[in-house]
Design brief:
By secondary structure, the chain is α+β, with helices and mostly antiparallel strands. The N terminus is likely disordered.
Length: about 300
């Protein structure tokens, strides 16, 4: 995956831009320049659910990838939100960082009719790499929750094989929408608590072919799902969400690639509570050729 080219970023942002009080050497809007433009005649979330209802999991993953890369996304997902993190070194010196995240989990459809769509690791990586994003770390997920404008209450559903069905995806999405109406959520506001996150972790370096999940915080801030790599990379169920984080990060006022930060033995701690994440570029590179998931 390529690193963001600073020469492509626009003029500096300042207070009043979508980064709030931050002064940045780029506009936050420039970070979404690789997110494809929306389709004029795109399927709504409801229609997409109907379209994939009879597909097996791999056919559905291919359909998800096609729709997302064609730009069938709610427009508000491009309204990136700054999230602040920090780390105090043993010397007492602090490192501060700002990441830029999508306000919601990836979804298919329009602003008014969209389906939050779980994905297996390979689909998520293909989407992220194409758009210039990366998956979050556990520390970033926690920071997003702490700084969210709205916290949802998790709504787990009965476990079983049906967890992976499109019907479960729809039912859970409807439960979230009901909460959203009650909470008065404005599209584009940073929200969390309604799904687990697919994350990056150093655990995957020694355990390839797995997917890592974490989060789904309760109202008391304690996550339902501890960091886990129990499932294979081809696995996805209704409770999973794909929250994307821009490859561009600001560390102590300097613009950097998030890859360089997460591979650095010192700087990585500001974004990761595990320290450096080895093999990160390989993890975030889509597999070449046919999907390793085969047919299911």
């Amino acid at each position: 995956m390529g690193v963001v080219s600073m020469s492509l970023l626009a003029a500096p942002a300042s207070a009043g831009d979508d980064a709030g009080a931050l002064t940045l050497p780029f506009t936050v809007a420039a970070l979404t320049r690789n997110v494809p433009a929306g389709l004029r005649e795109a399927l709504t979330g409801s229609k997409f659910a109907e379209h994939v209802a009879g597909m097996d999991s791999q056919a559905r993953e291919r359909a998800i990838l096609k729709e997302v890369l064609a730009g069938n996304l709610p427009a508000f997902l491009s309204k990136l939100v700054p999230v602040a993190l920090s780390f105090r070194q043993a010397s007492g010196k602090s490192i501060s960082a700002t990441v830029f995240v999508m306000p919601e989990y990836l979804a298919i459809g329009s602003d008014r009719d969209f389906l939050r769509i779980p994905m297996n690791l390979y689909t998520a990586v293909a989407v992220a790499s194409k758009m210039g994003f990366i998956l979050p770390t556990r520390k970033i997920v926690n920071a997003i929750y702490e700084q969210s404008a709205v916290h949802f209450s998790p709504e787990p559903m009965a476990a079983g094989p049906q967890m992976r069905s499109t019907g479960y995806y729809q039912t859970h999405n409807s439960k979230i929408e009901e909460q959203s109406r009650v909470l008065g959520v404005t599209p584009g506001a940073l929200i969390s608590g309604h799904k687990k996150d697919v994350v990056i972790t150093r655990l995957l370096a020694g355990n390839p072919g797995r997917i890592a999940i974490y989060g789904w915080h309760r109202p008391n801030g304690v996550p339902i799902q501890p960091l886990s790599t129990v499932h294979g990379a081809c696995y996805a169920d209704y409770s999973h969400g794909i929250r994307l984080v821009s490859e561009t990060v600001v560390v102590d006022g300097q613009t950097k690639s998030i890859y360089d930060v997460l591979l650095d033995p010192v700087l990585s701690h500001v974004l990761s509570d595990e320290g450096p994440i080895p093999g990160l570029r390989t993890l975030m590179s889509p597999p070449s050729g046919d999907s390793p998931c085969g047919h299911s």
